[in-house]
Structure formats: C-alpha cells, structure tokens
Amino acid sequence: MGFNEIEVLLVEDNETDAELTIRALKRKNLANNLVWVKDGEEALEFVFATGRYSEREIDDFPKLILLDLRMPKVDGLEVIRKIKRDERTNKIPIVVLTSSKEDEDIVESYNLGVNSYVSKPVEFDEFREAVSTLGLYWMLLNKSPE
After folding, report:
1. Label partner for 135 (CA 20 to 30 A): which of 68, 94, 98, 105?
2. Per-residue pLDDT tens over the stretch 66-75
3. Secondary structure of the chain in the HEC alphabet?
C-alpha cells in the first residue's frame, strides 16, 4: 500500500484500543487503507511528511484522522493544534476518539477545530458500533472540500 492511498490515519498508543478500532472498521470494509501510528509525534511526521515519513507526498492527506488525546511524546491536543493551524492540512477531518469525558478536553478540542469528539464506550459491542458508525459517516457520507 502506498501512502497516497491512505484513507484513515489512526493515532492510538493503546494496542488493545487500536486493534478493536481496526477490527470494527474492517467489519464495514473501511480499514483497507488505514495506517496506525502510536503517538502524536509520529502522527505529525505522517501528516507533514517529515521524519520517518519524509518519502510520502505531503498533499496525499488521509480522508480521516481518528485521534486519541492521551499519548506519549506529543498529546492529541497539540496534534490538533498543529494540523488545524496549517493551511495545507486544516481541512482534514479529525475525530477525537478518547476515554476522556472531561469537559475541559471537549471544549479545548472544539476550540482547536476538531470535527467530532467521541468518548470511547467501555463495552466492546458499544465500542464496535460507535467506531463502525463513525467510519461509515466520515468515509462514506461526509463531503470534504477538495
């Protein structure tokens, strides 16, 4: 898979949550062009085609970023801030998918320009349904500017 085919960038440091997310998207055939990165630093390198992703074309943006907030190196709020401040990347839809239900995180995420904020359900079936619904909406129904 080339990096110009990426539709979903999953930014998640928790392996179990990442696997559950990928599994839920696969059930709806939405994970064929997915890249999973494990921290905010790697996410920024991917989006801005730097560091370990310097071979990637910067203009080949993912159609959707699923982003955890609590991560090592660079947290999710900083990732949102950098992507939304840059004219090249500010139209990429970002959906926060996190265990945090703190009002401060929700308000700050929206202030920074996030497109949606979803608290991860605790039960597996609810989690799978939430991720499947997110994937279907953002990948098949939502229209983004070209």
Report:
1. 105
2. 999 999 999 9
3. CCHHHCCEEEECCCHHHHHHHHHHHHHCCCCCCEEEECCHHHHHHHHCCCHHHCCCCCCCCCCEEEECCCCCCCCHHHHHHHHHHCCCCCCCCEEEEECCCCHHHHHHHHHHCCCEEEECCCCHHHHHHHHHHHHHHHHHHCCCCC
Nearest to 65 by CA among 1, 128, 144, 2: 144
Please give the residue that has the higher pLDDT: either 138 or 38. Answer: 38
Record the pTM: 0.91
Angle, alpha carbons 63-77-23 (nearest 5°)? 45
Residues 91, 2: Cα–Cα separation, whole Å: 22
